[in-house]
């Protein structure tokens, strides 16, 4: 059994110890087992430590059948030697802060409102707990946050104790334990009593501070996102940077930001509406101009043109406006839109050309899809030919179908 130095002192950053085994696991990854280790293996919601053994990076630490496996970037050249191990202290201390913070947060929710924590996740940026409740109010969250930060300020001890099953009854545990031996309790006197195998600082003051960031419904529970310690500063820094940029961009003070954004959105909505109206008016003028460009091809009066990058909705609206101006024409409008060809074909009320057979002839040429009535139809497909070539085919199909 490896001596768990992280339990003897969670502050052990480096250590020397003999290697007891070096082997490959089923997946072919090298790992070593040590006589003693300060590397915490993934467990109890807390991620594993990283660091190095004799300068070789430890990329993962897992406890498999009570064997603590240190997965290395490359195997140790001499597996008989005593090796020197160093853990990434910043990462570990951050985990200790988040983990101890979680204990305090869960304890405060239970103490103040009897809200039970059902799970904990220590994330890379943000940690979460899930509470077995359906709703949480702003007021409750603030109260819990204040309580946690008061307990942090009071700098109470955080004690870790090994006890046997009989001794357990002396402690007001929050949750019934799943294990019956090697029971480790983590205790903040008069506040929190928990079975836990993680690493924690020895005082609440080292958690430094806790901030609840947000909460959301997660199935039938409430998921609370929070940060502790240096992460609070990091969050504040990130949010401040965003706010500072926004105050500059919006030319509004921090407190007036929401109002400024609301105004901006309202403005943009009004502008969109105005642009839509102007476009519709423009189409009316465009339609009038097209109405005077009637060509006679094989005895049939036709208006045709090719656009670049014009939405099909505009083509439709333009075609409708043109047939409102002239009644004895057939209209072919084509748009070359990136790698697509889109078109509208329509007839005026005095024309009797049927658009359906035209569509049937044209769509296969461009691998296209479309639909419409005998008097008005549209389609689109691949740009297998140019817009002009497509117009020619439309004109020809128009003469042959009649
Ligand atoms: Zn814990």
Task: Kindly list the characteristics that best describe this protein.
zinc, Ala-tRNA-synth_IIc_core, 3 domains, Diaminopimelate Epimerase, Chain A, domain 1, six-stranded mixed β-sheet, 402 residues, Elongation Factor Tu (Ef-tu), domain 3, DHHA1 domain-containing protein, Threonyl-tRNA Synthetase, Chain A, domain 2, 31% strand, binds zinc ion, Alanyl-tRNA_Editing_Enzymes, 34% helix, 8 helices, alpha+beta, coiled coil, 21 strands
Walk me through the structure:
This protein has helices at about 5-10, 90-115, 140-155, 230-250, 255-290, 310-325, 355-360, 385-400, and strands at about 5, 15-25, 30-35, 35, 50-55, 55-65, 65-70, 80-85, 115-120, 125-130, 160-165, 185-190, 190-195, 210-220, 220-230, 295, 300-310, 330-335, 340-345, 370, 375-380. The chain has a six-stranded antiparallel β-barrel. The longest helix has about 35 residues, at about 255-290. The protein is built from eight helices and 21 strands. It has three domains: about 5-85, Beta Barrel (Elongation Factor Tu (Ef-tu), domain 3), CATH 2.40.30.130; about 95-235, Threonyl-tRNA Synthetase, Chain A, domain 2 (2-Layer Sandwich); about 285-400, Diaminopimelate Epimerase, Chain A, domain 1 (Roll). Helix 7 (about 355-360) packs across helix 8 (about 385-400). The mean pLDDT is about 95. Zinc ion (ZN) binds near residues 99, 186, 196 and 198.
**Strand residue content:** 25-35%
Shape: elongated
| Mean pLDDT rating | 93
CATH architecture of the largest domain: 2-Layer Sandwich
Element-by-element helix/strand order? EHEEEEEEEHEEHEEEEEHHEEHEEHEEH
Main location: cytoplasm
Protein name: DHHA1 domain-containing protein
Subcellular location: Cytoplasm
Organism: Metabacillus herbersteinensis
